[in-house]
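Hi support team,

I've been running sequence recovery on a batch of backbones for a student project. Most finish fine, but this one hangs at about 90% for roughly twenty minutes before it completes. I'm not sure whether the input is malformed or the queue is just slow. I've pasted the structure tokens below so you can try to reproduce it. Let me know if you need the job ID as well.

Thanks,
M.K.
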């Protein structure tokens, strides 16, 4: 069992969601987060006051999968997030081991609890 965490650009979320669904990966969690990679801070002027926005909007996708779905999930995310613009950061994917998974409703544990 693995936990896949992907931090990607917000505009890529709809296409990533569709790519995951095509790979039969239906269960995932999405959060709006702030973060910064190698991007240059955005300079904005609001009500006449200059601001440097150092933390940019990102999307965090968390997917708990059994081992046989890891490659499919990573491929689905990468196929969309790679894009064609090599200059801009495309995000990161982290794959972590899961020690235990418990489905609260039924009490199932392990790979059957992930689904």
């Amino acid at each position: 069992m693995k936990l896949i965490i992907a931090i990607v650009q917000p505009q890529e979320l709809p296409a990533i969601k569709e790519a995951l669904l095509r790979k039969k990966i239906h269960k995932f969690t999405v959060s709006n987060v702030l973060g910064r990679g190698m991007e240059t801070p955005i300079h904005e002027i609001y009500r006449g006051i200059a601001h440097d926005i150092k933390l940019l909007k990102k999307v965090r996708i968390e997917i708990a999968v059994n081992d046989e779905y890891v490659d499919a999930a990573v491929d689905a995310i990468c196929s969309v997030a790679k894009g064609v613009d090599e200059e801009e950061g495309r995000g990161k994917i982290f794959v972590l081991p899961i020690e235990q998974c418990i489905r609260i409703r039924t009490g199932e544990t392990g790979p059957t609890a992930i689904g």
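--
Follow-up from support: It reproduced on our side and the slowdown came from queue contention, not your input. The mean pLDDT is 88. No action needed from you.
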